[in-house]
Amino acid sequence: MLKPVSETGLAVFSAPLCKPTPKNQRRDWHAMTNANGWGHEKNGNASPPENKLMCETEVTKVPMGQKIAFGYGMLANQMFPAALGVFLVVLVQDLGFPPLAWGFIFFAPRLFDAITDPIMGFISDNTRSRWGRRRQYVFVGGLILGVSYIAMWQLYRENGLYFNFIYFMACSLIFYLGLTIFSVPYVAMGYEMSDDFHERTNIMAVAQFIGQWAWVIAPWFWVILYDPDWFPNADAGVRQLSIWVGISCGLVALIPAIFIRDKSTLDRDDLKPIHIKSIKSSLGDIASSTLEAFTIAPFRKLALATFLVFNSFNIIAAFTFFIIVHHLFNGDAEAAGVWPAMHGCIGALATTFLVIPLVAAVSKKLGKKQTFILSQAISIIGYILFWFLFVPGKPYLFLWALPFHSFGIGGLFTLMMSMTADVCDLDEFNTGKRREGTLGAVYWWMVKFGQAFAGLLGGLIMWFVGFDPGNVTESSLTGLRIFYSFLPIAGVVGAILIMSRYEITESSAHEIRVELEKRRAQAAAASE
Predict the structure, then answer these.
(1) What tens digit of pLDDT does each residue of 212-229 get?
(2) I want to staple 188 with a disulfide (CB 3.0 to 4.6 A). Which of 16, 204, 436, 459 is the partner?
(3) CA separation for the pair 418, 182 (Å, rounded)
């Protein structure tokens, strides 16, 4: 049963766009589905008869140009962390950062995000301007990302470990602030692009298709960084490559701000004023709204499932380079050549051309929840195969595991972003407020916190198994491989169990949308 947010008794922070349904008149959408004669939902997600709802609400088709513009933003949103994941290996492998310091670098900025993400969500949700609520922040955030990424990687060995650690940490905080300013309103943009259940999945599928090219391109940075024909050493390589990444990705990040249409909010009288005093006075409301997001049962399940899948994936992702170089090629990074890049590139290509189109198509037949469970179950096969197919002297064998492995992340973000947009409708139904920025901020904070926790735990795992790039032992490599194959399986199984009780179906989402459109029409008529 979908529980109304207001039943929790928590406060909300902005005036309603439309009047929420009184508590005693709210309906159980699953019960309504059966009462309307549509029968029990096959796999929990049957559609109502087409003429039942299409007469009440019109499907909004988003032009492909708008989907592509949004997708370019996803390319920037994924290229920065993809490149960062490759470059961070250099801190340990070449600049001498201890594994625990490496883990702290992952973790500390997320504590910063815990404050800035909800504040940015509040600012974005309540902005009154001729450009709408999102575009200007996406533009400014993209510029900060490009400049700070370049500055962050201007590291020199002769400056010493202590100076480099402090310098990198300071620059990374600026970088992550730019990422917050960019990503929170950018994600909210995507949630607002369509009200249609399946069109939302199509939008996210196009965005993920474009964004996945970041993971096709980024692994080849490993090849370039460790090829002496390109650079004398890897740390010199990251100083120069960061310039190209920062400039190109910073420009790409501006595309959705320039080309995605948005309505002026200058005449909106339901938004809170944005200035220092209002933000300070609203900190309590921001905190309560953030906590309130987790009281929405479907949203809580999406966030926790994403945390488990993405976190477990990211914990072991950084081990890929070390396993390939030290297990398959006996520690010779130059001999490993293109194989670390092939791991990421082939996996991303499988995600782009196999997983994303297949997940988008299957979700229309089975529903989003069942498709998520199926895609994650397939990814378990890939993790098991990695244990058997990382064979010294035969690196080509692990390629067979990649198509199965790719269903994990590919299925996760194609579906979860679409499902979060459905939750935004449920939130409006219960509270009368459109809070894409707040819900998007909380969801993506969980994603980013997952990355940070993964970095910290990854460093602890390397310390626990005794892995030292300068003195690699067989037992430490075996320890890395055990965690590499079996830790993600635990995360995926946990996510499947959580999502098995996810409540929002296609029929209930349609019912909610019809009711919201009725309320908006009534509110518009009353204001005339």
Answers:
(1) 888 888 878 877 877 778
(2) 436
(3) 19
